[in-house]
Amino acid sequence: MKVYIIDDHALFRNGLVSLLESRKISAKAASSPEQGLSEIPDLLVDIILLDLRMPSMSGIEVLKALKKQGNKTPVVMLTTSTDENDLRDCLKYGAQGYLLKDMDPDELVYALDEIRTGSIIVAQDMTPILAKVLRNELTDGDPSFDLLTNREKEVACQIAGGHSNKVIARELGISDGTVKLHVKSILKKLSLSSRVEVAVMVTKKSYCK
After folding, report:
1. Where, per the database record, does this protein carry 4-aspartylphosphate (predicted)?
2. Which domain holds residue 190?
């Protein structure tokens, strides 16, 4: 696994690089959002770990900039914030994970591995807040679930359950490649840009019983 870190705190950034490398995970880091945004288009990485609070640009602004760049690499927030609005905004703008900096190293590595395979991971301490966020209005407009085929609806419900493509393929008895095609079609039909947005929309509207 290859991880790219954007964090302005040198002590934490360097410590995280050392931690990941000790777990046989390749890690490279940027000390500022600007450095990260300039380097990421030329990198082949599996996950981007992004700090939320930085002086020159917030993590939310970086998420928006990455989206404009057409970034397809999963972005995971690694922060100290347990604020409901921060979680809501990060998920709204495409973060595929929201993890806390004080989490156990083994849990971090496990979460990154799950996210790499397509899962949506939110820190366990944030679960009650996530439930509250999902009950609130998060997305603009009201894309119709009825645009999806029955199989696409099944895949969307699996996504809402936080399952990876591999797990979805196993549950539905189809190939990983077929799942990827369904996910692409779901995003296009619902005018959404990430699996997280699909999960939020499906959960908010209680489409999956």
Report:
1. 51
2. 145-204
Instruction: Tell me how far apart the alpha carbons of residues 180 and 68 are, in angstroms, rounded to a whole number.
Output: 22
Alpha-carbon separation of residue 136 from 86, 131, 133 (angstroms): 14, 9, 5
On whether the pTM is more than 0.90, the answer is no
Residue where a domain terminates, one of 135, 167, 189: 135
What the block records as the tokens of 82 is 């347990």
pLDDT for residue 195 = 85
Residues 6, 100 within the same domain = yes
Shared domain check, 165 and 120: no
- The tally of domains found in the chain comes to 2
**Do residues 33 and 110 share a domain?**
yes
Query: Are the beta carbons of 6 and 29 closer than 8 angstroms?
Result: yes
Please write the tens of the pLDDT for every residue from 153-168.
999 999 988 899 999 9
What phi and psi, each to the nearest 5 degrees, are found at residue 123? Answer: -50, 140
130: pLDDT strictly greater than 70: yes
Residues in the chain: 209
Half-sphere exposure of 88 (CA within 13 A, CB side): 15
- For 96, the token pair is 């595929």
The reported pLDDT for the residue numbered 49 is: 96
* Residue 140, in any domain of the structure: no
> Quick one: which H or E segment has residue 199?
helix 195-204
Domain boundary among 106, 135, 164: 135
